[in-house]
């Protein structure tokens, strides 16, 4: 069994060095890592092919295999995201503001790394490079524990990143990979309080709940997306159709995809048949409340469980509501605080939705699929936080830092 305490010791030692590394050195290494990812594309694709073979043998669904699958284009995109991180401002060492108090002390608030970050994640190999690059740029050592589905791909990616560090005279322990995918080792990582400053789970609801239940390390909850699109009575219906098809069908296996369509009763009779055709043509299966079934030809009756389900598949729940108040109440009762959207031409309705919906990202007249660190200009993301303490929404470099107060005196003592 892997020695997690040794990984923790290695990470702590590396974090001390990383915290003092210059921005120029970090950026140079990130660019070299990005180049190495592209230069080793053949080896990465071979590793990924092995993971995909195992996924097929284990009867993993095609939508979930899409999360796992790497292509030349996706590998290039991973490298580009690392290059974007290198171009971002380095938050470490920045003093947010300084002031002098009545005792004559000059007080400042300075950005510093969190220290050692643990990440438990599933399926998607791009999380490996995104997390490694963001942690490295923000001066944090990282211990990565990916899922068994992408084990070979993730291990190969970390080997490549570590080799760049070694080739340039740096410790490989800045980026480490847990080579044991057992639940026992995952549980140990959740309790590695002597070494981890924070643990970030990134994956489905079962993973998030398991980490919340078992971790003694401080955690940042991310990922689960039971997201809604609400079509208001004042919506432009052609726009609404485009948005809901994109939010549901463009990539249903990701956490920013829509899972429920709420539609105002005034537009439901003539709009539901239109949206049904567009969604069914995109491969989507509908599960609707009793009122909606009157206007739909292919839908089955939704159960109470459907309103709380993150399908991550070509399935969409549909419900008619009589008002925006009812829509907001439904969303706040059933959502996972990730991403919510309203389609409307009413300014009053849009502001009511923005102000009253409880979620990390709230949209007016746009798809929920935009909730993404790269899209928001963060270069990449280490996850999308659905909680309210420390960080909320897509987490970039700033969200991987904390602050400490620095105080300059001239011999003052407190009377």
Word description of this protein:
- The chain is α/β, with parallel strands linked by helices and 415 residues long.
- It has two domains: 4-222 and 388-407, Aldehyde Dehydrogenase, Chain A, domain 1, CATH 3.40.605.10; 227-374, Aldehyde Dehydrogenase, Chain A, domain 2 (3-Layer(aba) Sandwich).
- Helix content is 42%, strand content 19%.
- The strands form four sheets. It has a seven-stranded parallel sheet with strand order 10-9-11-8-7-12-13, with helices on both faces. A four-stranded parallel sheet has the order 5-4-3-6, with helices on both faces. A three-stranded antiparallel sheet has the order 1-2-16, with no helix packed on it.
- α7 links the parallel β4 and β5.
- α10 runs parallel beside α11 (268-281).
- 47% of the residues are buried.
- The model has no long low-confidence stretch (mean pLDDT 94).
Largest sheet: 7 strands, parallel
Q: Strand order of the main beta sheet, please?
A: 10-9-11-8-7-12-13
| Helix-strand pattern | HHHHHEEEHEHEHEHEHEHEHEEHEHEEEE
Distance between the termini: 56 Å
* Share in β-strands: 15-25%
Quote the average pLDDT: 94
Tag the structure with descriptive keywords.
globular, amino-acid biosynthesis, alpha/beta, seven-stranded parallel beta sheet, Aldehyde Dehydrogenase, Chain A, domain 1, Aldehyde Dehydrogenase, Chain A, domain 2
């Amino acid at each position: 069994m892997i020695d997690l305490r040794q990984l923790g010791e290695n990470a702590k030692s590396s974090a001390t060095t990383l915290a003092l590394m210059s921005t120029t050195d970090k950026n140079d290494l990130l660019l070299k890592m990005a180049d190495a990812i592209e230069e080793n594309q053949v080896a990465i694709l071979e590793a990924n092919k092995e993971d995909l073979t195992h996924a097929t043998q284990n009867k993993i669904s095609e939508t979930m295999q899409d999360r796992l699958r790497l292509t030349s284009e996706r590998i290039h995109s991973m490298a580009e995201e690392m290059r974007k991180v290198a171009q971002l401002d380095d938050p470490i060492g920045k003093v947010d503001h300084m002031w002098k108090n009545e005792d004559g002390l000059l007080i400042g608030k300075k950005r510093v790394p969190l220290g050692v970050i643990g990440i438990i994640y599933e399926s998607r190999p791009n999380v490996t490079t995104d997390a490694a690059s963001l942690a490295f740029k923000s001066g944090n050592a990282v211990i990565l524990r990916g899922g068994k589905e992408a084990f070979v791909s993730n291990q190969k990616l970390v080997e490549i990143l570590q080799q760049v560090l070694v080739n340039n005279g740096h410790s490989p322990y800045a980026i480490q990979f847990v080579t044991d995918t057992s639940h026992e080792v995952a549980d140990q990582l959740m309790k590695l309080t002597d070494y981890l400053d924070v643990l970030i789970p990134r994956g489905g609801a079962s993973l998030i709940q398991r980490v919340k239940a078992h971790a003694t390390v401080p955690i940042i909850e991310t990922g689960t997306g039971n997201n809604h699109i609400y079509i208001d009575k004042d919506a432009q219906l052609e726009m609404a159709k485009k948005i809901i098809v994109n939010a549901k069908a463009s990539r249903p296996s990701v956490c920013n995809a829509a899972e429920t369509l709420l539609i105002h009763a005034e537009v439901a009779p003539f709009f539901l048949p239109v949206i049904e055709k567009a969604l069914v043509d995109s491969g989507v299966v509908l599960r609707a409340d009793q009122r909606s079934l009157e206007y739909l030809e292919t839908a089955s009756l939704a159960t109470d469980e459907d309103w709380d389900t993150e399908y991550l598949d070509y399935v969409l729940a549909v419900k008619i509501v009589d008002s925006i108040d009812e829509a907001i109440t439904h969303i706040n009762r059933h959502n996972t605080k990730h991403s919510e959207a309203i389609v409307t031409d009413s300014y009053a309705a849009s502001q009511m939705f923005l102000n009253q919906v409880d979620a990390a990202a709230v949209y007016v007249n746009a798809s929920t699929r935009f909730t993404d660190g790269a899209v928001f200009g963060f270069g990449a993301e280490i996850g999308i936080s659905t909680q309210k303490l420390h960080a909320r929404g897509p987490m970039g470099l700033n969200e991987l830092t904390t602050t400490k107060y620095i105080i300059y005196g001239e011999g003052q003592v407190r009377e």
